[in-house]
Design brief:
single chain; 175 residues; alpha+beta; Alpha-D-Glucose-1,6-Bisphosphate, Chain A, domain 4; seven-stranded antiparallel sheet; 2 helices; 7 strands; PRELI/MSF1 domain-containing protein; Slowmo/Ups; PRELI/MSF1_dom
């Protein structure tokens, strides 16, 4: 099992970053995301919005991976999130639904309002392979390395959505 943990501070306010987080697909930094669909959305009696989305991602296998390890280099991802507007917190968990013997990836993202009006993002991820054949550690290390490399692209995609939202807000206000 491999782990990843990172925090990042956005200068933007929590409501704006939270909205951008849910509007981040599609964007040019996430060309691997084929589709993103809301499966369910409810609001709890305490005002927390609970959403489940189904995401299809496409990728590629490393050249050293055995032929036939997966029929397609794409995976269905389930994303479960809670938005607590009273406390200024978004909690989101994603995990792959298929290819779990080859690699199971679970990611937790928290967006927290800070006292100075910014937004703190905490990302944690776990990578577990049960493939065997002496490839377990190699698959986990490869997945962790790709995840680390893609974290910056994810942030760039979210930042693009933030810029577009501020631009659109300005256009609507000037109108």
């Amino acid at each position: 099992m491999k782990f990843f943990s990172q925090t990042f501070l956005y200068d933007d306010p929590w409501p704006t970053v939270s909205l951008a987080f849910f509007l981040r697909y599609p964007n040019p930094f996430a060309s691997h995301v084929v589709s993103c669909d809301v499966i369910s959305r409810t609001v709890s009696p305490t005002g927390t919005m609970v959403t489940t989305r189904l995401i299809l991602k496409r990728g590629s296998l490393p050249k050293w991976a055995p032929q036939g390890i997966m029929s397609k280099a794409e995976s269905w991802i389930i994303e479960e999130s809670e938005v607590d507007p009273l406390n200024g917190v978004v909690r989101c968990t994603t995990k792959n639904l298929d290819h779990v013997k080859v690699m199971r990836v679970e990611e937790d993202v928290t967006l927290q309002r800070t006292e100075d009006g910014k937004t703190l993002q905490k990302t944690e991820a776990r990578f577990v392979s049960n493939f065997g054949w002496g490839l377990t550690k190699r698959l986990e290390s490869h997945s962790l390395a790709r995840f680390k490399a893609n974290v910056q692209r994810s942030r760039e995609g979210l930042s693009l959505v933030l810029v577009l939202s501020w631009t659109l807000t300005g256009i609507l206000l000037v109108g």
